[in-house]
Design brief:
It is built from seven helices and 13 strands. With about 240 residues, it is α+β, with helices and mostly antiparallel strands.
């Protein structure tokens, strides 16, 4: 693997940044300064350091994105911008894709990865990976409505939702709903099934063990740390 690719895959530097760093003597391979970012190394054996800190190779890439409004959860789309357009070109070329989907106008936590096996396990219905959403709706939610949402209800297409948890805020028009499944437009359809209520704001704040990083503004992203990757792997077992 090339040094600049290793640094990019590990989230240390882009390829252009790697070239500048190499010229400045900030990259070493096995203790020797390396001026060429194109040098081929064995990522499993060679010790590569950036500014004196060892770069640990990871087979896959995991990115947390704070999804903004107007972006679709797809790798490509003929009409609208996709969430992949918010991450670096180097990561896109690695074959990244969104793990699960958020509606075009739903905000918040999205996991992007190139790890198809883990994504498949996390999204498998039998694992019931928990997801929490902050919501706002047009009408107040009565106690009967809340219980109906929590107990499971029949949607317009006949599907019966699994039990959920609904925490209402003081205005009874907003709160947090926790699901263990992820059907198409599910939350909007659930609220529509109770007195024809309407969701006007929706933000995912957790996905399994991941919690949306409050330091990320809309449209910003970061690589997951080792503890977060380990937690995701455990959740997918």
């Amino acid at each position: 693997m090339r040094i600049d690719k290793l640094l990019s895959v590990c989230g240390v530097a882009t390829r252009s940044e790697s070239a500048k760093a190499a010229k400045a003597g900030r990259i070493t391979v096995n203790g020797v300064a390396e001026r060429s970012p194109a040098r081929q190394i064995d990522e499993t054996k060679d010790v590569v350091c950036f500014d004196g800190v060892r770069v640990m190779y990871s087979k896959h890439i995991y990115i947390m994105l704070n999804k903004p409004e107007g972006y679709v959860s797809a790798t490509e789309d003929g009409r609208d911008p996709t969430v992949l357009e918010l991450i670096p070109e180097e990561a896109r070329r690695a074959g990244m894709f969104p793990c699960g989907r958020l509606d075009k106008n739903t905000l918040g936590l999205m996991l992007l990865t190139d790890d198809g096996e883990l994504a498949h396990r996390l999204l498998a219905p039998k694992r019931h990976v928990e997801k929490k959403y902050r919501f706002g709706c047009r009408d107040e939610v009565s106690e009967d409505d809340r219980q109906a949402l929590e107990n499971g209800l029949r949607l317009a297409d006949g599907y019966v939702t699994k039990p959920a948890t609904v925490e209402l805020f003081d205005d009874r028009k907003s709160g947090i709903i926790t699901l263990h499944e992820g059907k198409y437009h599910q939350i909007k359809r659930m609220f529509g099934a109770v007195n024809d209520n309407r969701i006007i704001f929706l933000e995912r704040i957790t996905f399994g063990p991941l919690t949306l990083d409050d330091k990320l503004a809309r449209g910003e992203w970061r690589y997951l740390d080792d503890a977060e990757v380990d937690a995701l792997t455990e959740a997918g077992k």
